[in-house]
Amino acid sequence: MSGSRAAVRYAKAVLSLAQDQKAAEAVNSDMKLISETIAQSDELRQMLQNPVVRSADKKSVLSSVFPKVSANSENLVNTLISNKRLALLGEVASSYVQLFDQLRGSQVAQVTTAVPLTGDLKTKVLVKVKELTGKEAEIENIIDESILGGFILRVGDTQYNASIANKLDKLKREFTLN
């Protein structure tokens, strides 16, 4: 938990500095890239969290993986290195993206479906999310064939599960209880 709190503090500091320098949008692009890359790469995540790997080596790896990041993002990496908190980079990046979206009044709606969403369905989901939350949203479509059909909509802390797999589980529980 303390790691998450520290990550949010770093993210708030970077966001404040980026806003002052009118670079919040560029830093947001960097943070999305960093967050997604670290989330998708087990090797990179393990290297960042490994205390045996020297900070200089970690920095050179990050420089080669993210060669075109803004000065603010590079300063964040340097600050995390000097404070021996580089393992938090992924958390800081995702916290920054969330804070930036909150600042813009936007949010990400994760829609998990068995097949990719069509353009028409994306529009309907966006309208429904705007109706429910009063905020604009971006759609992130996650494909998971195990839900069989239907969808799972997650916006912030709210989740609506209308998947076939969930309905079958409910029926199974009802039959086993009776």
Topology record:
Layout: H1 2-20, H2 24-40, H3 42-49, H4 55-65, H5 71-82, H6 89-104, E1 106-113, H7 119-133, E2 136-143, E3 150-155, E4 158-163, H8 164-177
Parallel strand pairs: 1-2
Antiparallel strand pairs: 1-3, 3-4
Describe the structure.
With 178 residues, this protein is α+β, with helices and mostly antiparallel strands. It folds into two domains: 2-102, N-terminal domain of the delta subunit of the F1F0-ATP synthase (Peroxidase, domain 1, Orthogonal Bundle), CATH 1.10.520; 105-177, no CATH class. Helix content is 63%, strand content 16%. The chain contains eight helices and four strands, in the order ααααααβαβββα. It has helices at residues 2-20, 24-40, 42-49, 55-65, 71-82, 89-104, 119-133, 164-177; strands spanning 106-113, 136-143, 150-155, 158-163. A four-stranded mixed β-sheet has the order 2-1-3-4, with helices on both faces. Helix 1 (2-20) packs across helix 6 (89-104) and helix 2 crosses helix 6. The N and C termini lie far apart (41 Å). The mean pLDDT is 87.
Instruction: Please identify which CATH superfamily of the largest domain we are dealing with.
Output: N-terminal domain of the delta subunit of the F1F0-ATP synthase
What fraction, in percent, of the residue positions are helical? 55-70%
Order of helices and strands: HHHHHHEHEEEH
Strand tally: 4
CATH architecture of the largest domain: Orthogonal Bundle
